[in-house]
Design a protein that fits this description.
Strand content: 15-25%
Structural class: alpha+beta
Helix content: 25-40%
Shape: globular
Number of helices: 13
Distance between the termini: 12 Å
Oligomer: single chain
Number of strands: 21
């Protein structure tokens, strides 16, 4: 006999299952929105006409200038754009300039749907701006980089969605004078965006400085996102100074006297180079309590990481997102980015979450473009970087790293994929490369990189043409990648602890199989586990008297 109690149990079970189903759909929608909230860093070569406009000998252009790339025109009404930092010979680092470095001006962005852009065209975006030079060493280069704030007539923030990268008011015009290939940052960021979260987006453009009726061609640039907290940037929760705990962004770099520098365990005990600066929360908002909270976070991680006690050491994984550290290592190692880990190195954390490495940044010196030192094809470099040197004491960290490396080399970081993508980028840039080299070619063909000696013979690392430089990058990927493919297990030599990992390896495989390797798979698998649990629980519940 079916009783009212039995019916109520069935109704309750059905209600739970339906609720779970609705919740899973809602979660899937949120996940899809998170994965597609910004445009992909894609380039399109098909059916694009590429006008080959001329640059005059004095680098001026006229109103007939055309490009298949977006054109950015900056007008500062004749005023020179200033730096915010200067090198101090006594202190041996860059120090801030006391005066406000920003000057006001106007920016015009021309980006037509037919991909034929002229300085005479109606702009897609026009805004007042505040602008300054950016960078440290690069401030002294002839080809400048710019930090731009879009503002309204009243000086307020003018957030705009530029080239599909999401609404913001702070933007960077960035291309390294020392990168004659013009692709290092774009190539590395674009590939990294398929591997890691929150990688800054970038779009190629050509930049022109306007002074009254004169137009000066400045070259090929990347208009790109800066690293900051925001819905369309690094998406972590907003700081509320009523609470001590907070999400935050840190950067390891040279000392910045204007910033908030952590007095953390690694710095105090001279275990790590350079300094960790709090980039978010902003200095004007940051309370002493939150600063102490951030410092304690880093202290706890570093005390475990640098501990000689095995049990204490293994607590490091309680504080960090291990997968993000592994991906950061692989990307910067394969691309031979010798600055990574030491300078322009970002770390972030969601409140009550774990520390994550990234976003990746600054590949100017990658692919054997480090001025002072030739790249070592048959060796790793990241094994010596701050924190990573200690992480490699754990053979399980190394095992996961090698497994992840082998997986990525089959697809995103395969030789074929990288080299084909290099060809796509250079084809897309087309005549813009020639225009940039016409302006800056004297430096590009100079003796910037140091020489090296092999078998007693002095070798020159400096290429003399664009094609030579592109081939150098390709050779770098092929040769260093080949060595890593064959010898990446040499990283085990840095393991100091000899704990038996047979059980942990099996647990790691089980965890990866059940929970997956990425956020999307993780959510799907967790939902499947919940479904199974609820289904079994419902049967048990109904079956009970």
């Amino acid at each position: 006999m079916i009783t009212n109690k039995y019916i109520s149990k069935r109704i309750m079970s059905l209600f739970i299952i339906i609720s779970l189903f609705i919740f899973s759909i809602f979660l899937a929608v949120l996940l899809e929105e998170d994965n597609n909230n910004k445009s992909d860093m894609k380039i399109e070569n098909k059916f694009i006409q590429k006008p080959n406009s001329n640059i005059n000998t004095d680098n001026s252009i006229n109103n007939s200038f055309k490009s298949h790339l977006p054109i950015v025109v900056i007008d500062t009404y004749g005023e020179n754009i200033k730096a915010d930092m200067l090198w101090d010979d006594e202190k041996k680092y860059f120090v801030p300039i006391n005066d406000d470095p920003y000057i006001e001006g106007n920016i015009t962005l021309i980006d037509n749907e037919n991909n034929i852009n002229s300085v005479k065209d109606i702009p897609k975006l026009e805004s007042k701006i505040k602008i300054r030079l950016r960078g440290n060493t690069s401030i002294n280069y002839a080809k400048k980089q710019y930090f731009i704030k879009l503002i309204n007539d009243d000086g307020s923030k003018n957030k705009q969605d530029i080239f599909g990268m999401g609404e913001e008011y702070e933007w960077i015009l960035n291309i390294s004078y020392i990168d004659k290939s013009l692709i290092r940052n774009y190539l590395a960021l674009s590939l990294s965006s398929k591997i890691m979260e929150n990688v800054p987006e970038a779009r190629y453009c050509e930049v022109i400085i306007k002074n009254k009726d004169n137009l000066e061609y400045k070259g090929l640039y990347l208009l790109m996102e800066s690293i900051k907290r925001g819905d369309n940037r690094l998406s972590i929760s907003k700081y509320d100074n009523k609470f001590t705990a907070s999400s935050y962004i840190l950067r390891r770099d040279r000392l910045d006297e204007t910033g908030v520098t952590l007095n953390n365990y690694g710095t105090i005990n001279k275990l790590t180079p350079e300094y960790l600066e709090v980039k978010y929360p902003y200095k004007k908002d940051l309370t002493e309590e939150t600063l102490e909270y951030i410092t304690n976070d880093i202290d706890n991680f570093e005390k475990a990481l640098f501990s000689s006690d095995e049990k204490e050491f293994y607590k490091y994984s309680d504080y960090i997102d291990v997968e993000s550290f592994i991906d950061y290592f692989i990307i910067n190692e394969l691309f031979s980015n010798y600055d990574s880990g030491y300078h322009s190195t970002y770390i972030y954390k969601e409140a009550y979450g774990k520390l994550k490495m990234g976003p990746v940044w600054d590949f100017d010196s990658a692919f054997d473009n480090y001025k002072k030192q030739q790249q070592k094809i048959d060796s790793t470099a990241m094994h010596d970087a701050p924190w990573f040197k200690e992480l490699l004491k754990d053979p399980e960290f190394t095992r996961k790293l090698i497994e992840r490396y082998n997986l990525l080399r089959k697809d995103i970081l395969s030789n074929d994929n990288i080299i084909n993508y290099i060809d796509e980028i250079t084809e897309y840039l087309g005549p813009a490369i020639d225009r940039d080299w016409k302006v800056w070619g004297d430096f590009y063909t100079s003796e910037y990189l140091s020489e090296y000696v092999i078998d007693g013979e002095i070798k020159d690392r400096n290429t003399k043409s664009y094609d030579e430089e592109i081939n150098k990058i390709k050779d770098n990927i092929i040769n260093h990648g080949k060595w890593l493919d064959e010898d990446i297990d040499s990283l085990y030599q840095f393991a100091t602890f000899t704990k038996d990992y047979s059980i942990w390896n099996e647990l790691g495989y089980f965890e990866k199989t059940i929970l997956g390797n990425n956020k999307e798979t993780f959510v799907k698998n967790i939902l499947a586990i919940i479904y199974i649990f609820i289904f079994i629980a419902s049967i048990v519940y109904i079956s009970r008297e």
